[in-house]
Amino acid sequence: MFQGFAILSLITFIPLLTALLLVLMSRMSRGDGKTQIEANAPRVALVATLAVFGLSILMVMNFDTSTADYQFYEEMDWLGGGIKYRMGVDGISVLFIVLTTFLTPLCVIASAKTVKTRMLEYMVAFLVLETLMIGVFCALDMVLFYIFFEAVLLPMFIIIGVWGGANKVYAAYKFFLYTLLGSVLMLAAMLWLYHYSGVVGTPTTDIRELSKMDIPAGAQTWLWLAFFASFAVKMPMWPVHTWLPDAHVQAPTAGSVILAGILLKLGGYGFIRFSIPMFPDASLHFAPLVFWLSVIGIIYTSLVAYRQEDMKKLIAYSSVAHMGFVTMGIFALNMQGMQGAIFQMISHGIVSGALFFAVGIIYDRMHTREIAFYGGIVKYMPMYAAVFMLFTMANVGLPGTSGFVGEILTMVGAYQVNPWIAFGAAFGMILSAVYALHLYREVIFGEVTNDKLIDIKDMTKSEIVIMAPLAIMTIVLGVYPSLITDITAVSVDALLADVAAKLAGN
Amino acid sequence: MLYKIILFAPLIGALIAGLFGRRIGDKLAQSVTTGLLVLSAVLSWVAFVKVGYGHEHYEINLFRWIDVGGFQANWALKIDTLTAVMLVVVNSVSALVHIYSWGYMKDDPGKARFFSYLSYFTFAMLVLVTSNNFIQLFFGWEGVGVASYLLIGFWYKKPSANAAAIKAFVTNRVGDVGLALGIFTIFLVFDSVNFDTVFAHVHDKQDMVLPFLGMDFSAMELIAGLLFIGAMGKSAQFVLHVWLPDAMEGPTPVSALIHAATMVTAGVFLVCRAAPIYDAAPHVAGFVTVLGAFTAFFAATIGLVQNDIKRVIAYSTCSQLGYMFFAAGLGAYNAAMFHLFTHAFFKALLFLCAGSVIHALHHEQDMRKMGGTFKLIPITYILMIIGTLALTGVGIPGTSIGFAGFFSKDAIIEAAYAAGAAGNNAPAVFAFWAGLIAAGMTSFYSWRLIFMTFHGRYRGNLETLKHAHESPMVMLVPLILLSVGAVLAGGIMFAKFMGVDAGAFWNGIMPGVGGGHEVAEVTHGVAVESAHGVETSHEAASGGHHDFPTWVLWAPFAVTLGGFILAWLMYMWRDGVQKRVNAEGGMIYKFLLNKWYIDELYEATIVRGTRRLGDLFWKIGDVKIIDGLGPNGFAAMAMAGGRKLSKFQSGYLFQYALVMLIGVVALLGYISMNVGG
Q1: Between the CA of residue B134 and those of B194, B199, B355, what are the distances in Å?
Q2: Could you check whether the bond before residue A239 is cis, i.e. omega within 30 degrees of 0?
Q3: CA torsion, points A99, A100, A103, A106, in degrees to nearest 10?
Q4: Mutating which of A141, A142, A187, A418 best tests the B interface, going by the most B Cβ atoms within 10 A?
């Protein structure tokens, strides 16, 4: 259907074009016109993001799940020297695009009523952010990938820095410091890769070609570490995770949703796209390291989550724990582990996104996220309590919700490689119940002891509009996960076969 | 279709009441859920007849669930005798509890929510028992856990209820970790998680050895052991039993349904379902026997001294579950299931009767403040006596006359004796004596409960007494129906579960039971009898008790009588209750009253340890070490270098952009240089 039709570029750049349009129109108008454009910005952004969502759904419906080849491929001459504008998706990346286009309109809706200042700029930032995020998952050229991958943080910095909380500068700065080192190392590794491609053949930045290269095991080691430095921070893995809670606490609601929902997946995606296929020997070599960091991360951050006093921090720490399952699954290097990791990322995008929206709902009413402030609000917000319960249970990994599938698959995958690791991760199952139910009990149950909470209003219509699709997806994916695993299966299978062939070759 | 209706009717009810409860009103929500459950219960009996008498069995695939690289589990319905028994138990008790709750929860503002939870629980339990694979079983397993959590914490304003709900969920999760690891091991060994495939290959894998946590295990022993950890959690066996007594914070109908008749028996069901594996794991089976027997004894000792009417029954449940486990561990799976079956009726009856008492006395649960109430609530009194007779297993040894518990509990004790007598089976000998002593204690605490509640002088608030009243018919009718079960369930079903028809009834689902073929070495008791039931049907027809020495047959009877007499002497004779209530109690009494101080032990170690560790990791690990050495350390260095921190911070964005720009330029420059060269 999309033969010769640049569907990926369209999906990627519609948000950016819309953003440009908004800026231009605002610049060109004055007075009333300007305010009008500012007031209409959310609506424009919503239309654009919904259109992108619709297109991405169309794309998935036309996605051929029987092949591991990249589809909807686009190529254009760009910078010369083997660097081209290459876009394409396979079973591994296609769903992340849908996740992005699914969450962004919800963020726009959520922000339309809650953002008080600079609405136009806010919407522009989100639209640019969406383009960059989609771009990361579409890019098949290393340079293009690098640009998207690094640039994605800029609008996020701005969102935290301009619309964030009291301590936003510290948070953004911490985020920056962490990311900096990884970026520099990854860049160096990319340079080497390009150089090496010239040594063994034609110099290229084509990710597909680079994945086919046989890189000497010695070089793989430091290349792997360089990429690891960047991806581990993005995940984030223990012990380079401390930027995340601060960033979440300071970010506005929609910023947190995107941060947890999409940006945390960039690291995992990077591992699958670069580290595993390009450096299989090193991946195998370092797998135990990743395992142990994952398991320590799961247990450590779950325990820390339990002791948090700020709702967002609690959920942020729980995100780190959930990402531990992802890294564990990826480096199990088997079907269950890898598919489970992808599933876990998608599921976490939905569930943690929903949890951050949920925190936003009461934050908008009370302007605090302090757990101790709340208690007993089920009395006034029964619908909210029910929705929050659903996502709490998904966070706990209850079977029947999407949270379960990813956890169980990654653990099954890891168990086949190292029972100790699965054993440790399984403790995360207990601890997630501890912190999640603790949060629920303190906020939702009990007597209303705080007078300020009396008559706190239940969810509004627009809040229901946001939560309903998330709730539905949580259950649908929990009951019928094949919706995802059927799409990812062939690509993951091919990836693992390639890796096995390369490993056998040495 | 029949089975789909049985399974989904409760779910539909739960959804209607849960989603539209407020719109359609309490009455309609109640009616819909109850109506659908009654339908489901009636159909369950139809299914029971078809499967148990018509020897049909089905496997219905609904649709794909998880299917990743050979790790495959479908949503499916597996209907065999084991499932049919559970269907009847679950749906019958659930339907009656639904009806009973009309009266019990009459004045509660959250009725729609309550009925929705009850129906949801039933659905999850049905998914558990109809599963054809371990993953779907896990769905049901955790689903009932959530339902239990929601229902224990139903009165969400009570801090104690919330705490109990979380305790139940978390303790169960500990068990679930074991179950999950067991399932992973099953997949590793068998490449499948489907019951039929797994059980068919147990024989091939019997000698397989697996490394696990630095040790080598026989694969079957490892699987059996891990699955049993799950069973210990759900069925509140020693070590993981602590949540069950606290679960009594939930409304009483919940205690009857979930924490007596159905959910807590899921562990027993699991062991029986996985019987082929346990049969190939003699060491773990021995452990199951010992732990079950110990729990039977241990919980009974605590039950002796508790003053909360529901807690007495809760410990009794814990103890009775112990019986079921030690029977299963001995390979007498049919005896375990039989006791599960009869226990469901009389324990639900006892709980609901207790609920009736509590209802009558304005939510008083402390037996020290009861007494002399039998005149006020005579029907409840009589029904509770029936429940007690069934629980204590009253009957005439050597004949087929007796209450339900007489058949099932004695069958278990005799199985233990037989296995022990066969020699070289220490767990069986232990189980026999522990079971016997526990039977005596069961009798004591049950009659103590009756005497303290209904006899003697009233010791509570007189105002409460004035308003005391017998429960309405909507509560009494379910009680009467359950009491019919408590009287007849044992006698009528003995032949099927244990006796002449056992071979055909069980249809070879559980090794050594009714299959007519190979019998596990350890079991020469009841299981053997029924295994050969088909061939030796004429001998077994007379009741099956006659192979044992007379003293074994009469021993349970004697200790039961002994328990009754002791209870009577202590609590009835010369106004004993008052004296007991006033008495200080010695060391042993305090030890038992405080439940062997196990909660205190857990609180001091695990609970506090978790909090401390969390704080340590957070305030020292994250803040001091990671941040201190990492980002904040950098900042300090930057300050030391003479730069103003604030300036540095405000410039972060541009610096970042700059670094990135430099990166891109470097990358492109390098590439173009390369191309040029």
Answers
A1: 6, 12, 36
A2: yes
A3: -140
A4: A187
The residue written with tokens 């050229």 in the block is A141
- Specify the pLDDT at position B656: 59
Q: Which residue has the tokens 């209750």?
A: B577
pLDDT exceeding 70 applies to what percent of chain B?
87
Q: What is the pLDDT of residues A188-233, one digit of tens each?
A: 899 899 889 888 888 888 999 899 889 998 899 999 999 999 999 9
Contacts of B631 in chain A (CB under 8 A): 173-174, 177-178, 242-243
User: From CA A74, how far away is CA A79, in angstroms rounded?
Assistant: 15
| C-alpha span between A339 and A326 (Å, rounded) | 10
| Distance to chain A for B340, nearest Cα, Å | 26
Token output for A124: 């522009």
Residue type, B328: A
Contacts of A431 in chain B (CB under 8 A): 610
Contact pairs from chain A to chain B, CB under 8 Å:
229
CB contacts, 8 Å: A180 with chain B: 656, 659
User: What is the pLDDT at residue B671?
Assistant: 62
In A51-109, DSSP assigns E strands to 71-80, 83-89
Q: Do A306 and B213 touch (CB under 8 A)?
A: no
Alpha-carbon distance B315 to nearest alpha carbon in chain A (angstroms): 25
Other CB atoms within 10 Å distance of the CB of residue A1: 9
- Count other C-beta atoms under 10 Å from residue B40's C-beta: 28
Interface mutation target, options A147, A342, A430, chain B, most CBs of B under 10 Å: A430
Instruction: Decide: helix, strand or coil at residue A488.
Output: helix
pLDDT at B194 exceeding the cut of 90: yes
Mean pLDDT, range A128-152, rounded to an integer: 93
Contact between A205 and B663 using a beta-carbon 8 Å cutoff: no
B-chain residue closest to A156, CA distance: B653
Q: Do A176 and B655 touch (CB under 8 A)?
A: yes
Of A184, A203, A386, the CB nearest to B675: A203
CB B233 within 8 A of CB B176: yes
Q: In angstroms, rounded to a whole number, what is the distance separating the alpha carbons of residues A481 and B163?
A: 33
Cα dihedral angle (A475, A478, A484, A489), rounded to 10 degrees? -170
The answer to whether B95 and B34 have CB atoms below 8 angstroms apart is: yes
Could you check whether the bond before residue B10 is cis, i.e. omega within 30 degrees of 0?
no
- Better-predicted residue by pLDDT, B373 or B446: B446
Question: Cα–Cα distance between A151 and A35 in angstroms, integer?
Answer: 29
Contact A334, A284 (CB under 8 A): no
d(CA A106, CA A16): 18
Percent of chain A beyond pLDDT 90? 67
Please list every residue in chain A whose beta carbon sits closer than 8 Å to the beta carbon of residue B211.
419
Bridge pairing between strands B209-212 and A83-89: unpaired
φ/ψ of residue A287, rounded to 5: -55, -45
Tell me the chain A residues in contact with residue B674 when contact means C-beta distances shorter than 8 Å: 81, 194-195, 198, 203
